[in-house]
């Protein structure tokens, strides 16, 4: 018999899959990792569509400006030369971006406490807010309203499950959300 025509044992022919009543299965549960992944993907899409920000563009930050802010947020205060080297851009280009961000109040220059001859660039409170807003994909207001309707135990389980999912993919969670409770 060819592989495609091979008949499955009778026990497998009577069951259809995820909530099939097969011995040892609980009806309604997804029975395979692929099925779970598909269900998660559908739920993720529903979460995205339900809670996606609809109040206009996330921010008005051009890509190069956002890249400088992101890099400073991750690396800490740097000189313009260090930022240019990290971003692999000409120092004059980064200097122009920094000057623009400084005029907008998103960056500031400060003397390096370890070496007063060096000037560091760093995010202002407005820069941190702009960067957070740029990163924001989901509406915090809509999420907060929905989470307030959940039982605290459900919310804690949701956050614990999401953390476990990210950790199981060996992707380190950002420090600011490790172990945070709702």
Question: What would you say this structure looks like, in words?
Answer:
This protein has 182 residues and is mainly alpha-helical. It is built from eight helices and two strands. It has helices at residues 10-13, 33-51, 63-75, 80-87, 91-103, 125-135, 140-148, 152-168, and strands spanning 107-112, 115-123. A two-stranded antiparallel ribbon has the order 1-2. β1 and β2 (115-123) form a beta hairpin. α3 packs across α6 and α4 packs across α5 (91-103). The longest helix has 19 residues, at 33-51. The radius of gyration is 25 Å and the shape is elongated. The termini are far apart. The relative contact order is 0.09.
Topology of this structure?
Blueprint: H1 10-13, H2 33-51, H3 63-75, H4 80-87, H5 91-103, E1 107-112, E2 115-123, H6 125-135, H7 140-148, H8 152-168
Antiparallel strand pairs: 1-2
Helix pairs in contact: 3-6, 4-5
Q: Structural class, judged by helices and strands?
A: mainly alpha
Order of helices and strands: HHHHHEEHHH
Tally of individual helices: 8
Side by side, the strands of the main sheet go: 1-2
Mean pLDDT: 80
Strand proportion: 5-15%
**Number of beta strands:** 2
Give a quick rundown of the structure.
This protein has 182 residues and is mainly alpha-helical. The chain has helices spanning 10-13, 33-51, 63-75, 80-87, 91-103, 125-135, 140-148, 152-168; strands at residues 107-112, 115-123.
């Amino acid at each position: 018999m060819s592989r495609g025509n091979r008949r499955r044992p009778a026990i497998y022919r009577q069951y259809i899959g995820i909530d099939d009543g097969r011995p040892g299965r609980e009806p309604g549960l997804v029975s395979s990792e692929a099925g779970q992944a598909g269900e998660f993907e559908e739920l993720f899409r529903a979460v995205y569509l339900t809670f996606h920000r609809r109040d206009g563009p996330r921010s008005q930050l051009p890509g190069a400006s956002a890249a400088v802010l992101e890099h400073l947020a991750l690396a800490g205060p740097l000189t313009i030369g260090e930022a240019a080297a990290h971003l692999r851009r000409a120092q004059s280009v980064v200097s122009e971006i920094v000057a623009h961000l400084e005029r907008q109040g998103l960056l500031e220059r400060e003397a390096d406490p370890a070496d007063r001859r060096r000037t560091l660039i760093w995010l202002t409170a407005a820069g941190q807010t702009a960067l957070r807003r740029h990163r924001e994909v989901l509406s915090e207001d809509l999420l907060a309203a929905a989470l307030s309707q959940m039982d605290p135990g459900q919310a804690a389980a949701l956050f614990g499950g999401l953390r476990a999912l990210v950790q199981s993919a060996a992707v380190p969670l950002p420090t600011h959300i490790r172990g945070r409770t709702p």
